[in-house]
Amino acid sequence: MSDWDFATVALILVGCSIIAAGIIIAAMLLGFLRSSSQFLLLTTIILIVMGAAVVLYVDRRST
After folding, report:
1. Left, alpha or beta for 4 (phi > 0: left; psi -120 to 50: alpha)?
2. φ/ψ bin of 27: left (φ > 0), alpha (ψ from -120 to 50), beta (otherwise)
3. 28-63 pLDDT, tens per residue?
4. Rounded to an integer, what distance in angstroms lies between the CA atom of residue 33 and that of residue 23?
5. Which residue of 4, 34, 39, 51 pairs with 13 in a disulfide if CB–CB is 3.0 to 4.6 A?
6. Helix 37-62 to helix 6-30 angle, to the nearest 10 degrees?
7. How far apart are CA 56 and CA 51, in angstroms?
8. Phi-psi region of 31 (alpha: psi -120 to 50; beta: other; left: phi over 0)
9. What is the pTM of this model?
10. DSSP secondary structure letters along 36-58
11. Whether the Cβ atoms of residue 56 and residue 36 lie closer than 8 Å to each other
């Protein structure tokens, strides 16, 4: 995998953001995060949407 394009980077961003959101939700359920949990979840949601938008843009541009 020598050529990194926008779609590859966006897919990695989406995957890592989903994993991070799962970890944040688990920490919230266990009671570790109290004050910053909403901000962290909002940040991961924004990263997921940005990554998905880039993937859709690259897909439509390539066809």
Report:
1. beta
2. alpha
3. 889 887 788 888 889 999 999 998 998 888 888 877
4. 11
5. 51
6. 160
7. 9
8. left
9. 0.80
10. SHHHHHHHHHHHHHHHHHHHHHH
11. no
Q: Per-residue pLDDT for 3 more than 80? A: no
**CA–CA dist 11, 14 (Å, integer):** 5
pLDDT of 45 reads 92
Nearest-angstrom CA–CA distance, 37 and 35: 6
Residue 9 has pLDDT above 60, yes or no: yes
- Residue 6 in this model has a pLDDT that exceeds 90: no
